[in-house]
Amino acid sequence: MKRTHFLSILFVALFATLCHAQSSQPPASVPKGLLTTADGKKIEFQNLTTSPEQHAFKNMAAGKYQTLPADQVLRIEQQTGTEAGMWALYLGGAGLVGSLLGVLSAQNDFGETNNSADVPIVLGLTAASALIGLAIGSGHKKYQTVYDAPSKDSTSSLFAPFRIKIASPAPRSIGIGISYNLSHTTR
Predict the structure, then answer these.
(1) How far apart are CA 77 and CA 44, in angstroms?
(2) Residue 137 belongs to what H/E stretch?
């Protein structure tokens, strides 16, 4: 029994590692995405084509085509959709828990209540919460990293910085952050 659990956990960890593996070669083309440059800029692009010497793309902020030398690009991320499903799941779950707690509290406070009205209340609040999450998440883009420059990688995933962040979905938000970096690089 313990061996089966150990092997299943090992298999899941191996599968997760392989799913998040990234190539050391840039892709030939990416339809939409985000570039991170060596000077720390994030550029939203469209129609990226790569060669060993340079990257050509349409800069969405400037509205024009431009090229960057290949050694100036640290990361290429491809846009894979929106976070609508994740937000709908989280807010729908919160709506389900909240409506169940409200119904249980009403039953405890008022004794017997009409049980036939409880199910539509719970389902309605859950659906409304999921729709609100769907609306919020549809405005957030989701990216997948397809290329990380190997010469610029200073930390491994094991020693990634630890961060706690509180922020709002507004473009300019006030947040609280804690950062702790475990890697000790010497130069």
Answers:
(1) 10
(2) helix 118-137
Percent of the chain past pLDDT 70, that is, above it, reads 66
Q: Which domain holds residue 73?
A: 2-82+141-158
Residue 41 lies in a domain: yes
Question: pTM value?
Answer: 0.54
CA atoms 129, 131, 132, 138: torsion sign: positive
Give the three-class secondary structure for 22: coil
CA 162/CA 181 separation, integer angstroms: 6
Q: What is the count of structural domains for the chain? A: 2
* Tokens representing residue 135 in the block: 């609306």
54 in a structural domain: yes
* Listed residue (130, 105, 100, 131) closest to 118, CA to CA: 100
